[in-house]
Write a structure and sequence with these properties.
Elements (H helix, E strand, L loop, with lengths): L1 H17 L1 H13 L7 E5 L13 E4 L6 H10 L3 E5 L5 E4 L1 H10 L1
Parallel strand pairs: 1-2
Antiparallel strand pairs: 1-4, 3-4
């Protein structure tokens, strides 16, 4: 059990070092909007684009985070994020164990 936790912690640390800006942006959005219990996000090209949300979501911008799509693909592979809707603008969901790590690492 302790070895599995250590491995999970090491994986989170590795991922955090790969993409510090993305992790910081997601963490900031989660912590500053706790009342909305945000778990879903989209990646838009820039701040001028509008996404028709049916509920509150985190918006990330490629203009600020150029590698966001590739980094999110790593998070999906690591089991930290899942794809809710795969269209031209995918909707992603943060997994609860990842949210807990983000909140505890703050």
């Amino acid at each position: 059990m302790a070895e599995a936790k250590r491995s999970a912690d090491e994986n989170f640390e590795r991922v955090s070092k790969l993409m510090p800006e993305l992790i910081a942006e997601i963490r900031t959005d989660l912590l500053s909007n706790k009342e909305h219990v945000l778990r879903e996000f989209v990646i838009l090209h820039n701040e001028r684009l509008r996404f028709n949300h049916d509920k509150p979501r985190i918006e990330l911008y490629e203009s600020k985070l150029p590698a966001a799509k590739n980094q999110v693909a790593v998070l999906v592979s690591a089991g930290y994020v899942s794809v809710v809707r795969a269209t031209d603008i995918p909707i992603y969901r943060l997994e609860e164990h990842f949210v807990a790590k983000l909140e505890n690492a703050a």
